[in-house]
Each structure stands twice: as structure tokens, then as C-alpha cells.
Write a structure and sequence with these properties.
This protein is of the alpha/beta class and 484 residues long. The chain has eleven helices and 19 strands. α5 (285-296) packs parallel to α7 (342-350) and α9 (399-410) runs parallel beside α10.
């Protein structure tokens, strides 16, 4: 979206003869191993603090990266750690991401990491641990702990969790990090603390889409240092952790990018990532996705959306050329910078070893998926889904159009409507769109969790306490009805 300025029993019949009958010994039941085990130890403790250690053992398939999660039960606060990248949300959730040198865990392999933390009153141990979203120290098939964001993957035309249960991504877009940083005013244009994230969950959302800016993430020198590079990445990581702590899927999207474009439907004439460009740039976008993928590859709960709203078809009247540009990049008609195609960006993600679910939106601001299957990027992991955006002011706004262009895609791969909305402050359009998408088992997220005037752009709320606009009421009530 452009802005205004997820027992078998054997029965033997018959009579037993007087002679003894020798039956084969009954096999002993073998308990299945838990997918992972975690040993938590307090190695030393003093009046206000303690030193702890976790030993993580992988009992499942080999992994190239890991993310350990647990909750401190009595208000303990993490102060520092080693042998992992440690962090704690504004609440109780603690996360430890592997370092580059200990990220590979073969089946049966383990890793140990330590930390320092403060305590007051009592210092009980955590009771539940997850490794890459999977519950540890538990029988296979045990339900995930409340609040755990599910690890996701593509299975046919569905998104499923680690247990094979279908998951639809339903929620909201938390806009802000794509524009405020490059404008020099901050990172998010409103609160993204635990309370504000809980408010989204209270709407019935199970997914939050977080648009990003490549120049801010990469720390390019045109962006103020306090809003870019490590500071920006840390802020995004913090929001991702809070979203997951409330059981919701974080969906990261590349929204604003580098490159001069002044052609049809241009949003700005600036080379910098200060507006939507028709396609991602080859200069920085692959590096952006390599960095993002390395950051989150140990977390299969994170979904990656390659590029917000491609519109190379606005730069040329040759539709076939526009689709080739979309997939292959390079020199594209009507676009004056070298383009990174969807295949380039997908390759950048997979080149890090990341197997996270990836989305790719089509042409015409992701509203046109008519040739998506014909130009679908190759993904050796099979973990690719289609993204679609639908607004009341787009071209494809009717059930007949959705049936002719979206339904064939939906029959082959999962479809996520990463943005739906309307600019009339009502919800008649999204009511129809949600009903159609519900009938197809597709996913959708409303644009946007911001307090703009809904007459200048679809805004779901009037206050960050979750007070909805008239348009937001439509989405909120529908999401709540689905989860009630």
C-alpha cells in the first residue's frame, strides 16, 4: 500500500490344548524421543542476581540454525549472555539465537550457552522451552505452549505447522518501519510495545505484517544512524519477538527500496528508498534479503515477503516483458536502474540456508496474479507461496476476477492476501473479499494498524489502544468471529 505524507490389538481364537503353547515374547514399548531437550541450570546465585546455563540437544532432523525460547516465571530480567545472541522482550519472553559458529546442530548434537540475570523474591526455573518453535522436553505431538508462534511451511496449497495442521495467516499490517526511519523521525510511528501488540492479538489477529526499508536495515549513510543499521535491526527483532510471544506470526516485507524511477505511476523522483519503486534494485535488495534471512533463518515462525507491490507493467505496455522483469530482473523496459527479480531475491534468501516460508506478489501492485504460475520462481525447498493485494480501488475487485485469476493459483500454492482494505471508511469491499477468501482457505491481513485518517488511506484504528475506525470494525469483528 502507498501511504499518505502464521494400538494395534491381535486376537487369537480357539481352544488351548493341554500341552503348553510357547508364545513369542511381547515386545517392550519404546518411547519416542522428544524433538529436542533442554537442560536449564542455575550455576551460581547471589542476593539480586544469578548465572544460568542452557544445554540444547536436537533430537530431530539436522538444523543449520536454532532459536531457543522460554519465559522467566517470576519477573527475572536478562542482563547479558554468551555463546548465543540473547534478548528479552518487554515482558517475560527470552530468546537465544545461535552464533555463527554454533548454529549447525546435527541429529543428537547439542549446544550450550550461558547468561546473567537479575531476580527478586524467588528464582524458579522456566517450565517450557521451544527450539525453532517446537516444544522441547515433551512427547512428540504434544500441543505447543500457549503463546508459541507456530513454525510454518508449505504443504501443497496450504500453510501448515510442525504437526501438519493447516494455518491461515489472518491479521493486520503494522506500518511505520518502512518510512519513518528514512524520513529521519524514528523507526515506528507509534507504540510497538507489548501492550500494543497484545491489542492486535485481542482483535483476533494471528499474524502481523511488518513492512521494512532496505536502506534503513542496511545502515546506508543517507539515514540517521540512530534509526538505521544495528539500531533498526534491533527494533525489528524486538517487535518480532513480541509478536511471537503473543502467538502471532511475524511477516516481514521489503517495502521501500533504492533506485530512480520517474515513469508512469512514479511515487517520487528520489534515488533513495523514500517511496515505492516498481521493482527492487539489484544494488541493495539482494544484500537486504541475505541479511534479513541470516537474522531469522533459525526461526521458522517468521515469514518473508520478497517485495511489497511490484508494478513493472506500469513502466511498459509489453505485459510479457513485465512478467519476465518480475521474475528475472536485469535491464527492464522503462526502468532506469538494474532490477533484482523475484528469483534473485529468493536465491539470496535460500543462499543463507534459510528455509522460511517466502511470499511473492504479482504485477499491478500485487493485484494481478494472472501469470504467476507461468513465471513462478524456482524454490528447491518448495516453501514458496503467492501474495496478493486487494483494495476497492484496484482493477481486480470482483468475485469473477478472483475466480479467474486467483483460484488457479490457490489450487497450486498457498495464497496470502498481504493487504486488503478500502479508502471509503467502510468495510463492504473487505466483507466480500474476506468471504471469498474464507471459502478458498486463503489468508488475509488488513491495511493498516495506524491512526491515519481513513479517508486518505485505509486505517484500521483511531487510537493505538485498538479503537477501530468504521472500516476497522469490519475486520476486527470478522477476525473475532473466526476465533470465537
Amino acid at each position: 500500500m502507498r501511504h499518505p505524507p502464521r494400538l494395534v490389538v491381535l486376537l487369537f481364537g480357539g481352544l488351548l490344548a493341554a500341552a503348553s503353547v510357547l508364545l513369542p515374547p511381547r515386545p517392550q514399548a519404546v518411547a519416542a524421543s522428544p524433538a529436542c531437550t533442554v537442560e536449564y541450570t542455575v550455576t551460581s546465585q547471589w542476593a539480586t542476581g544469578f548465572q544460568g546455563q542452557v544445554k540444547v540437544t536436537n533430537n530431530s532432523a539436522p538444523m543449520s540454525g536454532w532459536r531457543l525460547g522460554f519465559d522467566f516465571p517470576a519477573g527475572q530480567r536478562l542482563t547479558q549472555g554468551w555463546s548465543a545472541q540473547w534478548s528479552q522482550s518487554a515482558g517475560t519472553t527470552v530468546t537465544a539465537l545461535n552464533e555463527s559458529w554454533n548454529g549447525t546442530l546435527a541429529t543428537g548434537a547439542d549446544a550450550t550457552a550461558g547468561f546473567l540475570a537479575s531476580w527478586s523474591g524467588t528464582n524458579p526455573a522456566p517450565t517450557a522451552f521451544t527450539l525453532n518453535g517446537t516444544l522441547c522436553n515433551a512427547d512428540p505431538g504434544s500441543p505447543q505452549p500457549p503463546g508459541a508462534a507456530p513454525a510454518l511451511k508449505v504443504s501443497g496449497n496450504r500453510l501448515v505447522d510442525a504437526g501438519g495442521t493447516t494455518r491461515r495467516l489472518l491479521g493486520v499490517n503494522r506500518s511505520g518501519a518502512e518510512f519513518l526511519c528514512v524520513q529521519g523521525y524514528g523507526i515506528f510511528d507509534g507504540p510497538v510495545d507489548d501492550a500494543s501488540v497484545k491489542t492486535m492479538a485481542d482483535w483476533g489477529a494471528n499474524t502481523v505484517r511488518i513492512p521494512l526499508n532496505e536502506e534503513c536495515w542496511l545502515g546506508l549513510d543517507n539515514v540517521k544512524s540512530q534509526y538505521s543499521g544495528a539500531n533498526y535491526i534491533s527494533a525489528v527483532q524486538g517487535l518480532v519477538q513480541r509478536v511471537e510471544a503473543h502467538g502471532m506470526t511475524p511477516l516481514l516485507d521489503l517495502h521501500w527500496t533504492h533506485g530512480v524511477y520517474t515513469g508512469n505511476s512514479s511515487g517520487c523522483a528520489d534515488v533513495h528508498a523514500t517511496c515505492q519503486k516498481p521493482m527492487p534494485d539489484a544494488q541493495y535488495a539482494p544484500a537486504f534479503w541475505s541479511s534479513v534471512a541470516r537474522t531469522f533463518k533459525a526461526d521458522p515462525a517468521v515469514v518473508l515477503d520478497l517485495f511489497n507491490e511490484p508494478y513493472p507493467d506500469r513502466a511498459t505496455s509489453d505485459t510479457a516483458a513485465a512478467w519476465r522483469c518480475w521474475r528475472d530482473g536485469g535491464t527492464c523496459p522503462g526502468i532506469g536502474y538494474e532490477v533484482a527479480g523475484m528469483q534473485d531475491l529468493l536465491d539470496a534468501v535460500r543462499g543463507t540456508g534459510a528455509t522460511n516460508t517466502v511470499l511473492a506478489g504479482g504485477l499491478t501492485y500485487s493485484n494481478d496474479l494472472s501469470q504467476w504460475l507461468a513465471f513462478q520462481p524456482h524454490d528447491a525447498t518448495g516453501n514458496l507461496a503467492a501474495a496478493w493485494h486487494g483494495y476497492n480501488f484496484n482493477s481486480c475487485v470482483s468475485e469473477s476476477c478472483w475466480s479467474s485469476t486467483l483460484a488457479p493459483v490457490l489450487a497450486r500454492v498457498p495464497l496470502v492476501a498481504g493487504e486488503i482494505g478500502e479508502n471509503d471508511c467502510g468495510h463492504s469491499y473487505i466483507d466480500r473479499a474476506m468471504a471469498w477468501l474464507d471459502g478458498k482457505g486463503a489468508s488475509y491481513l488488513g491495511w493498516a494498524w495506524n491512526t491515519w485518517d481513513c479517508s486518505t488511506g485505509p486505517a484500521l484504528i483511531t487510537s493505538y489502544d485498538g479503537t477501530p475506525t468504521a472500516y476497522g470494525i469490519g475486520l476486527r469483528d470478522h477476525l473475532r468471529a473466526l476465533t470465537s
